[in-house]
Amino acid sequence: MTLLSIILWSTLVAFLIAQVSTFCTTIYLHRANTHEGLKLHPFIGFLMHLELALATGIKPREWAAVHRKHHRFSDQEGDPHSPYIEGLWRVLFLNVVMYKRETQKQETIDTFTPNWKDDLIDRVPLIGDLGPTIGMLLLAVSFPLIFGLSWWAGGLLGIATWFLNAGMYIFLNAMINSICHKVGYRNFEGQKATNLQWVALITAGEGLHNNHHEFPRSATMKARKWEIDPAWPVIRCLTMLGLAEYSESTLARVDFDKLRKAA
Ligand SMILES: [Zn+2]
Ligand SMILES: [Zn+2]
């Protein structure tokens, strides 16, 4: 294998893992756990939590608390990561620092997730550090076997691929919190958050952020027929298989009658 093809494969693997994590984030962490707009079968929840623990090290309770605070103070004083307060570029490149800073505040965790129930994975001691380490080791062991490299070279490449995946995942999340509050179109003018379809395509629908802020409990992020939320067909499939449940009444939609009257 040439060096170039190894780098390309490593980038592709990192991108695929970051994409799986993004789907798990929006379906499990965001729509189901944080906003409770979706109920997942415990086994699906377990698998998605496991994936996130290995690929990102995120703790669901911390994520939910910081994100609920973001909705409560959206783009006002108190928002943990508003581009209107911190500046667009700062949130785009330092979103992870702002997130970490907020997770250190016990008051945020207690206020925004008062009745949180830990699951099996949450109860594993040091899971925040242990998960990513196991994830890295899995890649470090599988890369030499898959690509026919020495243990040293393949192992190091596997670890580098894990970090590349983490960087991609962090950046995708930062795009939602920064540019999807400033750049793009709005179906709902009452929200500062914006929709960007191309961001939605690489963030499992999260880029339809204006719709989400208007309908936080919606299981889908799309409000218009032509908008594409890549996680929505996955949720529909899980629902058809009896592995997920959502309420039709909370689904996002544009009120066309109201729009006509306003025109
Ligand atoms: Zn937002
Ligand atoms: Zn949300």
Give the topology.
Elements lengths: L2 H32 L3 E3 L1 H14 L4 H13 L10 H4 L1 H16 L2 H7 L14 H21 L3 H27 L19 H6 L6 H6 L16 H10 L3 E3 L9 H7 L1
Antiparallel strand pairs: 1-2
Helix pairs in contact: 1-2, 1-3, 1-8, 2-7, 3-6, 5-8, 7-8
The site of one zinc ion (ZN) has 5 residues, from α10.
Account of the protein in words:
This protein has 263 residues and is mainly alpha-helical. It has one domain. 62% of the residues lie in helices and 2% in strands. The protein contains twelve helices and two strands. The protein has helices spanning 3-34, 42-55, 60-72, 83-86, 88-103, 106-112, 127-147, 151-177, 197-202, 209-214, 231-240, 256-262, and strands at residues 38-40, 244-246. The protein is globular and about 70 Å long. The termini are far apart. The structure holds zinc ion (2 copies). One zinc ion (ZN) binds next to helix 10.
